[in-house]
């Protein structure tokens, strides 16, 4: 015979409590998911992304006993051991946190250049890598992971960037470092402004316009596109560029609207033509940069011109520009 169990009030209270905890947990998880969705690479997404590359066999993961995780590029396998065993001794500082950069802002990171020669070298045998160290806060660890992912994603999309070599993360100590390839023949546009000033607008600006246009066409919104973050091989005959500094980079599945990425051009125009060292005039940019950029992206040139006008409402005349150029030529 079936006997209804007498409800146990203690059990009911426990169940209620558990249901409440579940509800709160679900709400928190939903908030977290929302937060993750709103970022292009959160720590979780970044880990997932890097692990997916590990499972595809493109990256390797080393875990050490004390919580350090290193994701490294398999193509650089033979350099990795040398890097760990001896490279630190040969590191030279490129930039120190707090130091003034060519455009006058303070550097956010310590950056080191490290020559590496593996024990059993395959051709070419020697490389130089760059190590960007992140200051010790949990937030910076996330930024390092995010930057590593963005660098890999940019490369995957066929955008010219330095090679990803490794990212070291020590979440318990809130430390991280991003290691990339370094090509000495590429310099930041900011550091070669005097070379740039002798580059004729009609040959340099279309090449740059095409390069930046390609970046936007491939769905990358850089968000910090100033002359410190664009590398150039300094060649006038065959200009080649590379992008660096992906801390704020955002990726879109397909080419975004101009209004989504236009801030990149605002920053670039400002730093290209910034007085007193600005190298090109508004007219140069309008004549040579904008057509090349719009040809690649299909964006409306009038919209880009309107942006240019909002950045440079008034322009110095030709004579004034010549005087500025003379001042900065060596
Ligand atoms: N691959 C590279 N090749 C040459 N110089 C580089 C490279 N990566 C970084 N640098 C130098 O270090 C500087 C800072 O690096 P970046 O990644 O832009 O860090 P930050 O976030 O501090 O601006 C750059 O402006 C450039 O001078
Ligand atoms: Mg930078």
Task: Characterize the structure shown.
By secondary structure, this protein is an alpha+beta fold. It folds into two domains: 43-181, Phosphorylase Kinase, domain 1; 187-328, Transferase(Phosphotransferase), domain 1. It is built from ten helices and twelve strands. The strands form three sheets. It has a seven-stranded antiparallel sheet. Helix 6 (201-217) runs parallel beside helix 8 and helix 7 (258-272) crosses helix 9 (301-311). The chain binds adenosine-5'-diphosphate (ADP) and magnesium ion. Residues 94-95, 107-109, 111, 130, 132, 162, 180, 182, 186, 188, 228-229, 231, 244-245, 247 line the site of adenosine-5'-diphosphate. Adenosine-5'-diphosphate binds at residues 94-95, 107-109, 111, 130, 132, 162, 180, 182, 186, 188, 228-229, 231, 244-245, 247.
Kindly summarize this structure in a few lines.
The chain is of the alpha+beta class.
Rg over C-alpha atoms, rounded to the nearest angstrom: 25 Å
Per DSSP, what share of the residues sits in E-state strands of 2 or more residues?
A: 15-25%
Q: Which ligands does the model contain, each kind named once?
A: adenosine-5'-diphosphate, magnesium ion
Look at the structure and give the CATH class of the largest domain: Mainly Alpha
Q: H/E element string?
A: HHEEHEEEHEEEHHEEEEHHHH
Topology, element by element:
Elements: H1 9-38, H2 43-55, E1 59-63, E2 69-73, H3 77-85, E3 92-95, E4 110-116, E5 127-134, H4 138-156, E6 164-170, E7 175-181, E8 187-188, H5 193-197, H6 201-217, E9 220-221, E10 230-232, E11 241-243, E12 250-251, H7 258-272, H8 282-297, H9 301-311, H10 318-328
Antiparallel strand pairs: 1-2, 2-6, 3-4, 4-5, 5-7, 6-7, 8-10, 9-12, 10-11
Helix pairs in contact: 2-4, 6-8, 7-9, 8-9
The site of magnesium ion has 3 residues, from loops.
């Amino acid at each position: 015979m079936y006997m209804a169990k007498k409800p146990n009030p203690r059990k009911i209270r426990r169940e209620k409590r558990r249901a409440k905890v579940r509800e709160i947990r679900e709400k928190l998880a939903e908030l977290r998911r929302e937060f993750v969705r709103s970022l292009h690479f959160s720590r979780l997404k970044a880990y997932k992304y890097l692990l997916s590359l590990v499972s595809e066999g493109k990256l390797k993961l080393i875990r050490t006993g004390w919580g350090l995780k290193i994701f490294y590029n398999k193509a650089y396998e033979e350099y990795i051991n040398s890097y760990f065993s001896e490279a630190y001794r040969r590191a030279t500082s490129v930039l120190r946190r707090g130091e003034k950069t060519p455009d006058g802002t303070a550097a956010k990171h310590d950056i080191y250049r490290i020559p590496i020669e593996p024990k059993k070298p395959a051709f070419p045998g020697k490389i130089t890598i760059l190590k960007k160290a992140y200051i010790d806060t949990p937030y910076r660890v996330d930024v390092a992971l995010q930057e590593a992912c963005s660098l890999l994603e940019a490369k995957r999309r066929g955008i010219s960037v330095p090679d990803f070599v490794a990212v070291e993360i020590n979440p318990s100590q809130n430390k991280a470092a991003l290691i990339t390839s370094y090509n000495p023949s590429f310099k930041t546009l900011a550091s070669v402004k005097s070379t740039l000033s002798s580059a004729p607008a009609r040959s340099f600006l279309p090449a740059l316009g095409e390069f930046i246009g390609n970046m936007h066409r491939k769905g990358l919104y850089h968000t910090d596109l100033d002359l410190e973050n664009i590398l150039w091989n300094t060649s006038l005959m065959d200009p080649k560029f590379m992008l660096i500094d992906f801390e704020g980079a955002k990726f879109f599945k397909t080419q975004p609207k101009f209004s989504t990425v236009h801030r990149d051009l605002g920053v670039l125009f400002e730093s290209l033509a910034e007085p007193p060292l600005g190298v090109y005039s508004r007219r140069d940019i309008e004549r040579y940069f904008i057509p090349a950029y719009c040809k690649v992206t299909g964006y409306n040139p009038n919209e880009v011109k309107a942006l240019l006008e909002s950045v440079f409402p008034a322009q110095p005349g030709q004579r004034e520009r010549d005087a500025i150029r003379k001042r900065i030529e060596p």
